[in-house]
Amino acid sequence: xxxxxxxxxxxxxxxxxxxxxxxxxxxxxxxxxxxxxxxxxxxxxxxxxxxxxxxxxxxxxxxxxxxxxxxxxxxxxxxxxxxxxxxxxxxxxxxxxxxxxxxxxxxxxxxxxxxxxxxxxxxxxxxxxxxxxxxxxxxxxxxxxxxxxxxxxxxxxxxxxxxxxxxxxxxxxxxxxxxxxxxxxxxxxxxxxxxxxxxxxxxxxxxxxxxxxxxxxxxxxxxxxxxxxxxxxxxxxxxxxxxxxxxxxxxxxxxxxxxxxxxxxxxxxxxxxxxxxxxxxxxxxxxxxxxxxxxxxxxxxxxxxxxxxxxxxxxxxxxxxxxxxxxxxxxxxxxxxxxxxxxxxxxxxxxxxxxxxxxxxxxxxxxxxxxxxxxxxxxxxxxxxxxxxxxxxxxxxx
Length: 398
Hints:
21 strands; 5-stranded parallel beta sheet; 7-stranded mixed beta sheet; alpha/beta; 10 helices
């Protein structure tokens, strides 16, 4: 059975729901969203869940609650895209035709790309804020840790919310300091990059945070394997100054490698490399070979940070360009790479890094120094952004 839709969106996450809501407000009447999940999550808050500053339940809503009125909800999972015939095939054998396709199924967590990591997640002392059910366990681990060694990891390659691997280290250290036990814990933060952040002015500010907590920062390094029985991680150098070593741990926060879903990697839409993201023009968000296909969010190949803030700026560009494509006009919308990375540095302060493709700082509130943590941004992270997300962004209003 084949069904036809004017605009078909794969993915009912942040990107898919935002675009659907904007398209419907623009006057489009045949918008379908393909999403098999029953629940929708506000993932940026999982860092605060793992750090004991929020409850997991506050980050979820039924998918039916966020699905825009007027959209057709196809509660199925896609398994293949055939752009030559404008067709999407689903895992149940059904297929759907489209005039315009928007691809935004999210990103895949590749836990098994790090040796021993899947097994380690089933053991005490190991968790990750990158899964809904694991984030609360991270807070339990932090509370129980009173001495020993704590290791926080970040993998190489693009990942969603690239600041999250260091945020949880700062929240943990802040808690341990307030408990009077930080001096009893050796804290290691392992990152694959030459510095803690890609923008020097931001990195300078975060270097001070790292030094203040006494964190041992290992740059140009990556965890290659986890030994849950021996409670050790093997670290390999990725460049000059990197670390080749084995570190023991009593508390371990792990972040997996990430990539496009496997069925995207094997599709004609893929870039064809190991990560396999949808191959799009970084400004128009249109596919480079199939002009009626657009992509945004974490699965797109655009070289911006993979954040919800990026989606908020990408979505209106995609909608403008869909309008133009359907009308036979040149694509007017252009995305400049804006992304926002709210980096929690304690239980009361936050550094808000906002920047574009060229790493130019783009602060929303220029009155506050964007290279330093500030108390008002903390309240924005915990209360303001979730309100914006549920009530405005997902309804196509922001």
